[in-house]
Fold this protein.
Amino acid sequence: MTGSERQTLLDRCRQSGLRITGQRRVILDVLESATDHPDVEELHRKVSAIEPGVNIATVYRTMNTLAEHGLIERHTFEDGRTRFEPAPTDHHDHFIDVDTGKVIEFVSDEIERLQEEIARKHGFEIVSHRLELYVKRLRSD
Amino acid sequence: MTGSERQTLLDRCRQSGLRITGQRRVILDVLESATDHPDVEELHRKVSAIEPGVNIATVYRTMNTLAEHGLIERHTFEDGRTRFEPAPTDHHDHFIDVDTGKVIEFVSDEIERLQEEIARKHGFEIVSHRLELYVKRLRSD
DNA sequence: TTGCAAGTGCAAATCATTTGCATTAACTCG
DNA sequence: CGAGTTAATGCAAATGATTTGCACTTGCAA
């Protein structure tokens, strides 16, 4: 019932004691408003459109800093590129549309439960996991 | 009931019309006898132990050739390194032991089925997928 | 406002992987 | 079995992504 449920990346940066610079504002903004999971180059391109002159090394460094502080997640899909997504609030898995390259999130408690079960059977406990479904849109004609 | 069920990588290379060179013999051998999923550097190290003087570019090239011919699979786990595993005979998913780095394979028809179901619900059909469980050994004390 | 540490730009360094080119060696065919 | 073609290899240089050293700038706490 507080107003803090949809916390912005910027807020979380503050909480982590990171300095809020002009570049960071833009980077965080771009990162947050991205529907897709962008890679560094994409980020840099979008950031530069808003605020030219931001060095790509800064984007790299910012991504690393954010990741260290747990504010973003780093993903490496089969296409090899390292991509980012803001804040692991709730856990979810990914559809990757092989035609468009779009990444869509989904959740399945059932699958999560099965994973636990299988791990236990093998004498493991799960630290984390990743499930990626490479998909094509179903055509209804 | 023929004798062809456990086909060696070498055989499959021959079938694909690849030349069998001294280096390749060794590389295939190392690849096949590896329980873990090695990356290029690991492969090169092991190969060099048997047959010194094999250039790492050759290992890279061989991996690419094998992958093109579908004789090995390329994986990129969260640790970022590109790793290989011989022959995608049956489909399976991976446990990655976060302590040891070991990769263990497993299968779950149930999970596979759930995946199909979820994809369908979202209007997708699955082209391929990857499920990785990052795990720790359960301690029984 | 002042000072210091964190952040930034730029260029050079690093790391993994690929590639051009000359050389070697597998397989095919006679 | 020997010659020819063509893939495979070695080596070094090129590439592409990411990191880093260093000098300079700037956010923020006091």
Residues 18-19, 21, 23-24, 53-55, 57-58, 61-62, 65 of chain A lie near DNA strand C (CB under 10 Å from a C1').
